[in-house]
Amino acid sequence: MELLKDQYFSPTFYKKLAAQLKVVYPALDTRQFVRDATDDLESLALMQRMVRTSETCRRHFPDNFRKSLKILYALAQTIEAGFAYLFMPDFVARYGEDHGDLSLLALRDFTQYSSSELAIRTFLARDFEATLNTMLIWSRDDNYHVRRLASEGSRPRLPWARQVPQLLADPEHTRTILTTLCQDDEKYVQKSVANHLNDISKDHPDWVVNLAKSWDRNNKNTAWIVKHGSRSLIKKGHKRALSLFGVAPAKKISVRKFKLNAKAIKMGDTFSFSFALHSDHDKPQKLVVDYKLHFVKKSGALSAKVFKLKESLLPNGESIVFQKHYVFQDYTTRKHYEGNHLVEIIVNGESMAKKRFMLSAS
Question: pLDDT below 70 — which residues of the chain?
Answer without folding.
Answer: 1-2
